[in-house]
Amino acid sequence: xxxxxxxxxxxxxxxxxxxxxxxxxxxxxxxxxxxxxxxxxxxxxxxxxxxxxxxxxxxxxxxxxxxxxxxxxxxxxxx
Length: 79
What we know:
mainly alpha, 42% helix, transmembrane, transmembrane helix, elongated, D-alanyl-D-alanine carboxypeptidase
């Protein structure tokens, strides 16, 4: 590696290429089977709630009036 010949104001700048940290990042623990099952159950519950709300909202979102909801007045009968 190229070494400087002129003086440097700080010693750590001159030796920066040799620096190595002895601090290791913390290792993550693997989730247990119960934690994985719990996360999957929560995910399935959220998805089931979204699908259920969509299925319940579909009739209200439809734009065409169905024949069961059409009301006729007695005046239209010609009595």
